[in-house]
Amino acid sequence: MRIGIYGGSFNPVHNGHIHLAQTAVRDFSLDVLYLMPSKISPHRSSDEYAAEEDRLEMLRLACENIKGLEVSDYEIKSERVSYTIYTIEHFRELYPDDELFLVVGSDMLLSFDKWYRFEDILSNAVLCAVSRKNGDNDELKRKAEKLSGYGRVLVSETEAVEVSSTEIRKKIEKNLDYTCYLNKNVVQYIVQKGLYTAKGDTDTDINEVSLMQYDPDDKKKYLKEHLSAKRYQHSLNVAAECKKLAVKYGEDPDKAYFAGLLHDICKELPDDELKAMVETSGYAVCREELETKSLWHGIAGAYFIKTNFGIEDIDILNSVRFHTVGRAGMTRLEEIVYLGDLVSADRDYKGVEKMRKLVYTDLDKAMLEALIFSIRSVIKKGGVIPDATSEGYNFYTRLQKKEKNSSDLKRASK
Length: 414
Description:
Layout: E1 2-8, H1 15-27, E2 32-37, H2 52-63, E3 69-71, H3 74-77, H4 84-94, E4 99-105, H5 106-110, H6 118-124, E5 126-130, H7 137-147, E6 153-155, H8 165-173, H9 184-193, H10 202-212, H11 216-226, H12 229-249, H13 253-262, H14 271-280, H15 287-291, H16 296-309, H17 314-321, H18 332-343, H19 352-359, H20 363-380, H21 387-413
Parallel strand pairs: 1-2, 1-4, 2-3, 4-5, 5-6
Helix pairs in contact: 2-9, 4-6, 11-13, 12-13, 12-18, 13-17, 13-18, 14-16, 16-17, 17-18, 18-20, 20-21
């Protein structure tokens, strides 16, 4: 067998990593490629890292159902610094009769002769490089030629997907949109765990600067010109509801107002325009969403306000994107916009008063009831349930069970 090994910090794992891994499997005819996050990198401070178990789980999520890719926790579990020679020796013991291939990015190839015991690495494994920066192929080939005296060195001709974990972490810290760079399940994991978010006073400063760019009065003018009178009034009502909910639950009221105001910005566009925006948005869109025209405006709306208004605040974008379908692990602002849309002053469906009361009592319980309401409505109409909605239902159901079990334990201990 041809066994590949690809290590790194994966902090977080992004689409560039997965592209590199799949390219290696294809171009070097690997039977399997093991991806493994490092425990202690000799090149970086451990302060930069997300927790080991988080990086490992994100990697598993990103590699899920991709043929040829497996995840190894060897370096995470190792008590030693993550020098590559130790990993090569470990895999040589596991696969004594198989051929080993060490996969690296172009940046690693160029500095490979500075690695600890690099000669021993090359005597035990074929070194395989895949570019991470377009235009460096000639430089890689020259470096491979210099290293060839120590062992076999291969270079892929495939063009790079240029993505940086450092830049992604900066975007997350500044609350800017980063979702196009990551697997959707990794995005969800980061949100649920609160990974890479800014700490301290700088958070407030960043968000205040961002919101100064988003003038609600200016956007009201746009909405009034592009929406019907009824839809425009609904947008104002949702914005007002979101602001009240934000005050109730400790969120930024101005930000909530702004997100609620824009949630239906693309609602009345022609279907062909909506579909075109959905298809070019870069968002992960499931088959059920593509089949349901009434869901397109949320995805298109997030794409529209990012590209036309320059809005990159991830909370605002996701609040617009998911206000029709919900999802697991929604942020408070996403929940507020989803529920604010459901209980705004113009809503008059059967049971709306009960829902309004619940929304101002317990936001998590309200989310579960709202998703049940949505699912029942879709089933009644003979529609299909989007993945995000069913995942959201499961998430909030488990959350309520967890809270109930916790309450039961507290009562039992008294």
